[in-house]
Amino acid sequence: MNKDTLAAPINPARRDFLKTTAAGAAAAAASSFVELASTGKEASAFAYEPYYTDDQLTTMVTSCAHNCGSRHMLVAHKKGDVIVRLSSDDGRYQAGGAFGFETEAVPQLRACLRGRSYRARLYSAERLLYPMVRVGERGEGRFKRVSWDEALDRIAKKMIELKDTYGPTAILDQSYAGASYGVLHKSDQIEGLLARFLGMFGCRTSSWSVPSYQGTTFSSRTTFGTIEDGNEDDAFAHSKLIIMWGWNPAYTFHGGNTFHYMRLAKQRGCKFVVVDPQYTDSASAYDAWWIPIRPNTDAAMLAAMAHYTFVNELQDQAFINRFCLGVDAGTMPDWARGHENFKDYILGTYDGQPKTPEWAAEICGVAADDIRKLADMYARTKPAALKASWSPGRNAYGEQYNRMAAALQAMTGNIGILGGCAEGVGKGWHAEAVAYPYDEYANVWSASIKSDRWAHCVLNYPDVRREEIGLWPRADQFDGVIPNIKAIWWHGSDWFNQLTNINKEIEAIRKLELVVCADSTITPSGLWADILLPVATHFERHDVALPWYKGHYYIHRPKVIAPLGESKSDFQIFTELAYRLEALDPARLSGFGKRYNPKADRSYFENDDPVDEAYLVDWWHRVQSHQGVTMSWEEFKQRGVYKFEFAQPHVAFRDQIEKGVPFNTPSGRIEIFSTTLAQVSD
Ligand SMILES: Nc1nc2c(c(=O)[nH]1)N[C@H]1C(S)=C(S)[C@@H](COP(=O)(O)OP(=O)(O)OC[C@H]3O[C@@H](n4cnc5c(=O)[nH]c(N)nc54)[C@H](O)[C@@H]3O)O[C@H]1N2
Ligand SMILES: Nc1nc2c(c(=O)[nH]1)N[C@H]1C(S)=C(S)[C@@H](COP(=O)(O)OP(=O)(O)OC[C@H]3O[C@@H](n4cnc5c(=O)[nH]c(N)nc54)[C@H](O)[C@@H]3O)O[C@H]1N2
Ligand code: SF4
Ligand SMILES: [Mo]
Fold first, then answer.
1. Pocket of ligand 3, beta carbon within 6 A
2. Average pLDDT, stretch 585-596?
3. Atom 15 in ligand 1: which residue has the minimum CA distance?
4. How many helices (H) and strands (E) does the chain have?
């Protein structure tokens, strides 16, 4: 197409810049850009000139899709099919519809700068716009354009060959966070689209976990019996002391509007403390007392705080007696009388080493007086939130840090009360997350390994012990069988950037027979792929955004613009592949296409709209019946957001503390002494 026919005027300087950059950059990126121009979908999004006024534009509510701990509203302002700017919630979209509407219970979901700058990703010169296959050596980064037909045919034939030659573990599913918080288009390891696709095909090694919060997860499960130990963040507004332990909510969001509620707390007189090796923007913003600590020594400092609390008898003994297991000799279960209890460990009864502030100061580099001062503040200020985030537990025995923090939260009676905090993992309110197409065949696998151990497995196969790769137990004859991985599929993940020991991964990837990367831009992982599949972003497909670990709202994500270039949604790609596999191997894969995407037929590859909407309507009906929502789907679509309003902030374990409901642990108590661990070590 002649570029003069482009509809929207663009800034010439910016266009030249894009062209020059693209021409000199990696082959993939360069050719993407050329294609973008030649289809008329040029980067005309950078239409700063002229600056359109609102009455010249149409607006659509959608949401950001970044894998941060929040989910905020984006409002797309469009000229034709081009998003020319993004703004955010200004209150007018919820019930009432008044501009500026905001209350403490129903806040605006205002996007951060990263969210508001999403156009830079959407219209990036690094967008993948059509399928490509590798032409050079793997990792060289040289690709050529092919048709969808050719790309998918190659993949389908190779998948069958791999399964027949190497068995049901040959393809490694490396999906992850990229698109995990949509109702329909999901890339997570359990309910994701790839998980279902490979599971139903019958050849899948799944990856579990990520280098993030395994220590914390272990701690929350053993101590509280659940990872749902989180309050909704409006509870922070009621704290009198907030200790940000390895937590920097100015950068790392774990819920929506966290900083807003913390600011309300500040206005009401709350004191702030940051325990972090770095002086962070959170420390600055809340005028916090900053306590720099040596990385990976947090458990020692927390133990010394427990010591101070015990020797000064500041613990909440009534809370301990009623709700905890093994904090002291009096709360040990009868069957474990001979075991060590927490208090005597802290006081040095067993090893002759009281865990005093002086003892800890040597280890963690925090002055003993500061440890005493913080312990005193935490024990005497009610209610107080010790938010023990994940990062300090990201190391060997990391769970000890979170377990120690949980012991302090419990000893001070700050669990299950408004303004306190039991986090941990911190999952708060539960979204209605399961959509219709995921019910069947979710998370079927032939082997499951710890995500970052795949290279070790490939390089040492078959001389690998199960502990070396975190091989998950199975209840059948395949338990303990080491996977014979010959292919990788990246879907919503970029693990040549995000995993540890990339050099080892490079060595391992050379041994594989197939590497597929489905993404919307070229990534460090994609450079190592054999086949690149261009994926439509969340602006280019229909979905509903779910909050992450916290947040009680849903945001509609319409197809704001048509998919750029030839990009397709993952769901379209897997559906079409399922039909192709079925055609290649009808005896074993009969009905695969329909089972994978029951509401669609093969035309879905060209037209996904009615099918996607039908799934979303199903999901909305669940929301209506399970969560008491009366708003219709049509109204939800028109407003773009549904915000739940609670009579009081959601606080984890409120019912346990107020109504005596048992904790979900073997003893029904907060297990500072863990029944499960004690029995394993016996
Ligand atoms: N904006 C934004 N938010 C996000 C994400 C994102 O990409 N962007 N990602 C989300 C995801 S997937 C995750 S897993 C979480 C991660 O959430 P966190 O684990 O809470 O976040 P980090 O930023 O890794 O670390 C927080 C702080 O811990 C400090 N720290 C590091 N080591 C230690 C230590 O040994 N001791 C102490 N006391 N402090 C230490 C760091 O200096 C940093 O300021 O964040 C989520 N939220
Ligand atoms: N160096 C370093 N490594 C880390 C971390 C760190 O802090 N530093 N944090 C760790 C943690 S906590 C996490 S959670 C992981 C995150 O690791 P990843 O899940 O790999 O990270 P993301 O960059 O969020 O997403 C990966 C890709 O998904 C793509 N994507 C987005 N939407 C879609 C979609 O709909 N379909 C497809 N096919 N692709 C899509 C994005 O373009 C992006 O390239 O990284 C871990 N590794
Ligand atoms: S805080 Fe997270 S969800 Fe919200 S706009 Fe920023 S990146 Fe997006
Ligand atoms: Mo993460």
1. 64, 66, 68, 70-72, 111-112, 114-115, 253
2. 95
3. 252
4. 26, 20
- Reduced to 3 states (helix: H, G, I; strand: E, B; else coil), residue 21 is helix
* CA dihedral for 522, 523, 527, 528, sign (positive or negative): negative
Is 68's C-beta closer than 6 angstroms to any atom of ligand 1? yes
Task: For residue 545, give the ligand nearest its CA.
Answer: 3
User: How many angstroms separate the CA atoms of 171 and 187, rounded?
Assistant: 16
Distance CA(21)–CA(33), nearest Å, equals 10
Q: Is the CB of 126 under 6 A from ligand 2?
A: no
CA angle 443, 446, 452 (to 5 degrees): 80
The type of residue at 623 is V
Whether the Cβ atoms of residue 248 and residue 543 lie closer than 8 Å to each other: no
Do residues 545 and 554 touch, judged by C-beta distance below 8 A?
yes
Q: Residues 6 or more apart from 439 whose CB is under 8 A from it?
A: none
**Closest residue CA from atom 25 of ligand 2:** 178
**Cα 79 to chain center, whole Å?**
32
At residue 51, the pLDDT reads 81
Distance (Å, whole) CA 107 – CA 469:
44
Distance (Å, rounded) from C-alpha 59 to C-alpha 72? Answer: 16
Coil, strand, or helix at residue 188? coil
Q: How far apart are CA 284 and CA 155, in angstroms?
A: 52
* pTM: predicted TM-score of the whole model, two decimal places: 0.91
Residue 536's alpha-carbon distances to 128, 246, 539, 562, in angstroms, are 9, 36, 8, 9
Residue 266 Cα to ligand 3 midpoint, Å, equals 23
Task: Give me the phi and psi of 148, to 5 degrees please.
Answer: -60, -40
- Supply the Cα-derived Rg of the chain in whole angstroms: 27
Other beta carbons less than 10 A from residue 447's beta carbon = 25
Task: Say how far apart CA 5 and CA 28 lie, in whole Å.
Answer: 26
Distances in Å between the alpha carbon of 656 and those of 205, 232, 652? 39, 17, 9
Q: Give, rounded to a whole angstrom, the gap between the first and last alpha carbons of the chain.
A: 74
190 phi and psi, to 5 degrees?
A: -110, -55
Cβ-contact 50, 17 below 8 angstroms:
no
522 close to 35: Cβ distance less than 8 angstroms? no
Domains of the chain in start order, with CATH, are 52-123+545-563+619-643 (3.30.200), 132-210+436-535+570-607 (3.40.50.740), 214-424+652-678 (3.40.228.10)
pLDDT of residue 681: 62
| φ/ψ bin of 369: left (φ > 0), alpha (ψ from -120 to 50), beta (otherwise) | alpha
* Residue 377 structure tokens: 């503040």
Over the stretch 39-87, which tens digit does the pLDDT of each residue have?
Answer: 444 444 454 567 888 899 999 999 999 988 889 999 999 999 999 999 9
pLDDT in tens, 629-639: 999 999 999 99
Question: What does DSSP assign to residue 436?
Answer: G
The helix (run of H) or strand (run of E) holding residue 171 is strand 171-175
Residue 253: name the closest of 70, 67, 65 by CA.
70
Range 330-344 average pLDDT = 94
Residue 12's contacts (CB-CB under 8 Å, 6 or more residues apart) are none
From the CB of 495, is ligand 2 less than 6 Å away? yes
337 CB neighbour count, 10 Å cutoff: 9
Residues in the chain: 682
Cβ of 666 less than 6 Å from ligand 1: no
**Is there a contact between 257 and 107 (Cβ–Cβ < 8 Å)?**
yes
3-state SS assignment for residue 203:
coil
CA 433 to chain CA mean position, Å? 14
Quote the DSSP letter at residue 561.
S
Distances (CA, A) of 190 to 186, 327, 572: 10, 36, 19
Conformation bin of residue 385: beta by default, left when phi > 0, alpha when psi is -120 to 50: beta
Q: Enumerate the β-bridge partners of residue 143.
A: 134
